[in-house]
Amino acid sequence: MPHHPDGINAPRFTGIPTFMRVPFVEEIKDLDIAMVGVPYDGGVTNRPGARHGPREMRNQSSLMRGIHHVSRINPFDACRVADVGDVPFKESHIPDRAMEEIETFYREIHAANALPLTAGGDHSITYPIFRGIASAKAPLSMIHIDAHTDTWDSWQGNKFNHGAPFRRAVEDGVLDPKQTIQIGIRGPQNVSDGWDFSLESGMRVIFMEEFTEMGVNNVITEARRVVGDSPTYISFDVDGLDPVYAPGTGTPEIGGITTIEAQKLLRGLRGLNLIGGDVVEVAPPFDPSGNTAMVGATMMYEILCLLSEAITVRA
């Protein structure tokens, strides 16, 4: 049941915060979309803080309303949507165990035939999410918005760091690199290993300079070409945005995507065969204003509208 008899129409400063004021449920059943928090940042290589992302995105998501002003989609009317809480960690201080705990939770969501929409957490969480909802027999395609390719290898002995999830996913066969597009990549690196892996494995990598030259509409066309009608996951790292819009993140890179460009890009993905998404790397301690979490929650809403329409079309 909703926390308030009027649900999303209740005063937004009331009630226990859930994602976008949807009902909180402990048993994952009879849902179309399960919104999940993954409060984990054990994969960061420098600035921690993304473990606090889900709680603050829940808080800021109370600003979301029902009807999208462009598409006129109301995901809360179209689908059965609930907040299923956070992944219940017991050994999050051990990266291997944390990955297993995340995977187990998402297997439960997948078994219940719900599509996951996740608030991270650092980007390492997407790898066990993939393991929970895909297999080597049915790898996923991906539209990945980020400043970084996240296809590097181990860092100081941790192969599950937030710069490596998509290398691990390709190695495990749960991500199809030839149907993966990475958008907004930029910033210097000490080694070219990640860029090289993405390009050599067949990923379409749009560096920020190409993004600027192409324009959003052409990037949308390219993304749709790459993934086609295959089952596709959207992974949105807030550091793909310019830090003037999202300063509260662990690895900011200047010269990034604007919020309106990101919204237009996501809206251009309507009609794809979408099976889940996430917004990661919101680190509230680096942005006391709450703006980064509000931006992250808004991008979650954009993805929620896409998922709800995909479900409606398939039904």
Give a brief rundown of this model.
By secondary structure, the protein is of the alpha/beta class.
Write up what this structure looks like.
Helix 3 packs parallel to helix 4, helix 4 runs parallel beside helix 5 and helix 9 packs parallel to helix 10. Strand 4, helix 5 and strand 5 form a beta-alpha-beta unit. The chain has ten helices and eight strands. An eight-stranded parallel β-sheet has the order 2-1-3-8-7-4-5-6, with helices on both faces.
Number of helical regions: 10
Between the first and last Cα atoms, what is the distance in angstroms?
A: 24 Å
What name does CATH use for the topology? Answer: Arginase, Chain A
Written as H for each helix and E for each strand, in order along the chain, the element string is EHHEHEHEHEHEHHEHEH
CATH class, please? Alpha Beta
Summarize this structure as a short list of keywords or feature phrases.
alpha/beta; Arginase, Chain A; 8-stranded parallel β-sheet; 8 strands; globular; disordered N terminus
Topology:
Layout (H helix, E strand, L loop, with lengths): L32 E6 L14 H8 L14 H4 L2 E6 L8 H17 L3 E6 L5 H8 L6 E6 L19 H8 L2 E11 L7 H9 L2 E4 H7 L1 H12 L4 E6 L21 H9 L6 E7 L10 H24 L1
Parallel strand pairs: 1-2, 1-3, 3-8, 4-5, 4-7, 5-6, 7-8
Helix pairs in contact: 1-10, 3-4, 4-5, 8-9, 9-10
